[in-house]
Design a protein that fits this description.
rod-shaped
Length: 267
Amino acid sequence: MASKDKLLANAQKFLSKGQIPKAIGEYQKLVEANPKDVRNRQKLAELLSREKRNEEALTEYEAVAKHYTETGFYLKAIAVFKQMQKIEPSRVDIYHRLAELNEKQGLVGNALTEYRNLVSFYDQNEMHYEAIEVLEKMAELDPDNLNVAAKIAESYKATDQTDEALQKFQEIISPLASKGEHTKVIKLYERFLDICPEEGTSRLPLAVSLLNTGSAEKAIQILKGLLKHSPEDADVNKALTDAYVANQDYANARLTLKHLLKQKDKD
């Protein structure tokens, strides 16, 4: 076999003449002679990609990316995986590996972007269970991200995991309600009201937020519904009393308050 210098010279000559297939042949010989030569292997991958020999290009890129990952050159590995992503944008494993590498490199924003792209792909293909796994990873990286948390709840809902969806939704709502972010609470309920049962108190934060944003009448309707299922619930009775007062229905406010005080006396 010709020497490395000779093979490189031949490859450069063919490239200068635009003879890409012949240049590929020389680079293949170089890589065969020295499989650990990642620089020439990467050049081979680039040339194969230019010739639309995508499967071969991906194989060579994969070897280069593996080398950079194993040796801790994460930024170089990321660049190689990005090239692979351009060739085959539907390969979900590439999104995963890009996200993991960006995370290792401390580039959390980039990792989240890759995960978002992956979630988008899963959504388009109605792969909701897979989307949930990725969203959970995103939540670990960005625990205060309301959109990610809501997306997890929506994905549970899409897979008929209603109990899990409701639990996640309540985890989102509770701190928002405590901080008095009533507009956000109302908007979230617009997306998730159908998973909140009429019995119990899962709709109570919605009623309180409506009351605090000037919609006392709507709040009253919700609270009266809750009261049918939980007539002794102190929080529901107190909120209903406040709603009647806000709606200037003082007679019903007095009746509800009297009932509330009677319950407190029993306790």
